[in-house]
Amino acid sequence: MLIKEFLTMLVENEESGIYCAIADSENYELPSGCEFDEKKGTLFQGMSNNIPVELLQRRFSKWDMFGNEFIFVCQ
Length: 75
Description:
Layout (H helix, E strand, L loop, with lengths): L2 H8 L8 E5 L18 E6 L5 H4 L3 E7 L2 E6 L1
Parallel strand pairs: 1-4
Antiparallel strand pairs: 1-2, 3-4
């Protein structure tokens, strides 16, 4: 499933968004703050309405939750 499709099911109001992270490996480490760090495997961290279009079009193999944050692991 595409990240965009999954978020459409979760987020009623696109403007409000939800806090989420996108990683390229199950061995990700979430950096503190909203900066992304490719060395840690995190491609994006922040509000869902700020995700770059090219990441929204990626398929994910797994999703997880850490507190109030959704984490998507891309294929």
